[in-house]
Prior knowledge:
By secondary structure, the protein is mainly α. The chain contains 22 helices and no strands.
Amino acid sequence: MKVGMFFYLLxxxxxxxxxxxxxxxxxxxxxxxxxxxxxxxxxxxxxxLGIGTSITFFLYxxxxxxxxxxxSEIMSVLAWLYRCIGFIIGGIGVAVSLSFPFFFSSLxxxxxxxxFAFYSYLAMSMAGYLINYRQLLxxxxxxxxxxxxxxxxxxxxxxxxxxxxxxxxxxxWLWVAVGLVFTVIGCIVFNRRIDKxxxxxxxxxxxxxxxxxxxxxxxxxxRQVFVQRIKDLLLYxxxxxxxxxxxGVVLSAFYFNYTMLINKLNVMVNIxxxxxxxxxxxxxxxxxxxxxxKVFWELTAIRFLITGFIVFGFLMFMQPFIACWLGPKxxxxxxxxxxxxxxxxxxxxxxxxxxxxxxxxxxQDVWAAWTELIVNLGVTLALAPFxxxxxxxxxxxxxVFFIAVIWKPYFLFTKGLHLSVSVYWRGMLPxxxxxxxFTAVAxxxxxxxxxxxVYSWATLAISAVGIMALLMAAYLLTLLVFTKxxxxxxxxxxxxxxxxxxxxx
Length: 505
C-alpha cells in the first residue's frame, strides 16, 4: 500500500497538469475521441470473461502452501486461456473498427488517425493477455506493490514524454505512438523481474490446455464472474459512450474532466483494496471466524474514513477546482456533481463486502447482476433522452443501490460468513448515520462559505486545507467514539489509541 500510495500521489498531481496541456495542445475533440476509444476497448476486454478473478482465487491456497508444481499448473491454464482471449479480442477489435467510417465521419481530423489510435490501444490490450498475464501471480502472492512499482513508473515516464511532445509539437500521431512504445518497454522490463522473482515458475500454454480438464471449477467460477463483469462494464465504463451518444463527443470531454478527478481518487481506494485482497483471501482460508469479522469491521471503518475524505472534499471543492484548473466554461451543473458523488459513495462504501465476496469465491448470484443491469438500462433509456447526464447517473444509482446496499451484504453474511444479516446492519447503521450527518455539514459549508468566497487558487488552497482538516478531524473523532471498527483500527496505532482514550475521558 505504501508503494501504491507513493505512485498514486505522483500520478494524481501529474494528471491535472497533463490534462490541461493535452486539452490546450491537442484539443477537446481529440481528447474526447481517446476517451471513447478507450471505452470501446473496455467493452472488448469483457472477453476476458473474469478468468483472472477466478484464477486468482485458486492461487491463494497453493501459494500459501508453497506448492510450486500446483502454482505452475494453474498459471499454465491461465496462459492458455489468456492466449485464446488475446486473439479473440484482436479479431473482435478489427471487426468493430469496420464501423468507424460511419461513427466518426464528422470529426475534423483524418480517419486514419482514428484507426491508428484504436489499433494502438488494441495492441496494448492484447499485450496484457499474451505477455503480462503473470502479474496475476504476483498480486495473488501479496506483492501487488511490485506490479504497481513497475507499471506506474512506466506510466509516469509515458505521461511526461507525451506532455513534452504535445507542448512542443501538437502532433496527435506522435502522442498515440508514445503510448504504444512505452507499452512495449513495460512488457520487457516487468517480465524480466518476474523471471528473477519466480525462477521455479514453469509455464506451458500447451500443458495448460491439457490441464484445463482437471480444473472444472475454474470454468464454473469464470462463467459466474463473467456475468458480474458485463454488468460492471455497462454500469461503470459506459459513461463516456452514453454521454457522447446523448450529448456529443465534445460534451463527453466536459464530463471526462469530472470523472477523471473521481477516478484518480478511486484509484487510491483500489490501491488499498489491491494491497489487502490477497491478505483477506488468506485470512478466510485460515478459518478464524472471530478474526475474520474483526478485520471486516476495521476495513469498513477505513473505507468510510477514505470515502468521507473523497466525497466531502469533492462536494465542497470540485466546482471551484474545475473553474481554477480549466476555466469556468468547463463547469457542469451542481446537480450532476451531487449525483456523481452519491454514486461514488455507493461504490466505495460497498467495497469491503465486495472484497470478502471475491475472497470467498461467491460469484453464483448471477441473477443479481442481470437485475442490476436491466434496471440500469431501463432507467437510463427512459430519462437520458430528456435530461441528459443526470438521467445516465440516476440509472446507475437506482440499479446499484438495491443490489449493492441490500442484497450483497445479505448474500455474503448468509452464504459466505454464515451469520445473520442483522449482524451486518447493527454494525453498519452508525457508519451511515455519521456519514449522513457530515455530508449535511459539508453541504452547508459549500453554500455559506465556499461558493461565495472561493474563486482563485489561493482561496481554494487555504479553504481546502483549513476546512478539510477541521471537518476530517471531527469526522475521525466521531467514528472513533461511535464505531468498534475504528476503535480496533486505532488500537493498532499507539497515537490514535491514546487520542481515543483522551476523548473517552
